[in-house]
Prior knowledge:
- The protein is of the alpha+beta class and about 200 residues long.
- Helices cover about 20% and strands about 40% of the residues.
- The chain is built from 1 helix and 10 strands.
- It is globular and about 70 Å long.
- Residues about 5-10 and about 40-45 have low confidence and may be disordered.
Amino acid sequence: xxxxxxxxxxxxxxxxxxxxxxxxTFLARIIGIAFVGVLFCSHLWAQEDKSKRPSPPATAxxxxxxxxxxxxxxxxxxxxxxxxxxxxxxxxxxxxGANEATIFTTDKAIKVEGKDLPAGKYxxxxxxxxxxxxxxxxxxxxxxxxxxDESANFDPAKNVLVVTVKPKDLKDSQEKLIYTISDKxxxxxxxxxxxxxxxxxxxx
Length: 204
């Protein structure tokens, strides 16, 4: 009888051990499948069609004298909102677009509002104001445009150039944000227009 009890307990232990290993293997498989799912979703996100975003990507490019200037940005819409001084408070830096930080590239050294900007690739930020705006060229590129707290995502220590300009009121509201580059003699520079506001910076 004692031998029977011993064999029973031993078999029960082996069964429990096998059951434990089965559960452990099952759990490992579940974790593995979940991990693959996360990787797959990340891949899909990376391969997303950005043109279907609410604020789709856009590009403005043109020559100003010998320099080729390109601005890559995302274009949000007004959608009936008060933008500057409302959605975007005065005095608070803004990514100058949506989604990723706006990118400003020039293949030649230029002067923006009379100040030197070396050839290169920069993230572009702006600080709206009622009477005056700041335009910021920062050497950090490739980042999402805002931090977790929705503040502009750039390191001020990496600012290469900051210029100030005066905003202009538009007669008709510009629904989608747009950048333009002009090489006209009396209008040489780049501009950002959105809602009822246009901001222009001269380039030489």
